[in-house]
Predict the 3D structure of the following.
Amino acid sequence: MPEPITNSEKNSITIAAANTGKDNWEWKCLLSTFDKVNWQIRNRRLTLLIFGEEFGFDRNASIDARFVGMSSREKTEEILSAADIMYCSQSFEPKFASRTRKHWPPELALFLKSGRPTVFHGPSYAAPVKFLKQHHAAVLCHSCEPVSVELYNCFDRLLFDADFYRETAEHGRQAAKQELITSISNEHLKHCVKPND
């Protein structure tokens, strides 16, 4: 189990995320919220570790982002172990509401298994929400305001409440062992990781 990010000598925070498209509402919300605080939380620099296809950050040259593409499951788990927090999002857009109600983000299972706490950013009706609440498996944010104080506070609390960090990470890891999420993982992980070589 990773230690909470309470070491004052650590001056950066790495957030792992899957690229769902920079023009999606939830992704815009994340970027604009971090823009507002100059990509820092309490003077610690925020870094994004992004899985999936690379895209340009033409909005803000100061963004610190590293694209890791798609790797085998084992390699992906290894990369995730270097992150401090997982960020998993699901669409807020009304035109995608039907899909959001039925489908789980393919990366969620890996994020929960990582031993790091997960911030789940999506509407209250999203398919995984009931499961995540039941198991206290992630910090939930249902706000998609252009600059979301609620989203910022999710990260802030994880970073500076050591007990909450540990508990959320452990609950997520335990939840990932449940039969429901195991079956979903096996069905959907092929979309976010490459087969083993």
